[in-house]
Amino acid sequence: MKLGLEAFVANIWRPISSAPRDGSAVLLFMYMEGRGDYIWLDRWDAQDRRWRLAPHARPTHWAPLPLPPRP
User: pLDDT per residue over 12-65, tens digit each?
Assistant: First the structure.
């Protein structure tokens, strides 16, 4: 079970170059030396050509949002 979960998590994160630029929400990841890992929800702003919530951030990976919980 643990190996399956690790493989799943390893395949969630994708290179930032493949992130959607259509305004859909995604999870972003970046590592900052001395500060650690950062993960946040954001959307690409096509007009300004940058991430909306962290416009100066340089994320290295992205992941699609998981499905919401079912009632």
Answer: 899 999 999 999 999 999 999 999 999 999 999 999 999 999 999 999 999 999
H helices, E strands: number in the chain? 1, 6
User: What is the model's pTM?
Assistant: 0.81
Cα 25 → chain centroid:
9
What Rg, from alpha-carbon coordinates, does the chain have? 14
- Pick the closest to residue 31 from 40, 23, 18 (CA basis): 40
Asked if 51 and 28 count as a contact pair (C-beta separation under 8 A), the reply is yes
E strands, 2-57, in order: 14-15, 26-32, 36-42, 44-45, 50-51
Nearest-CA neighbor of 65 among 30, 45, 41?
41
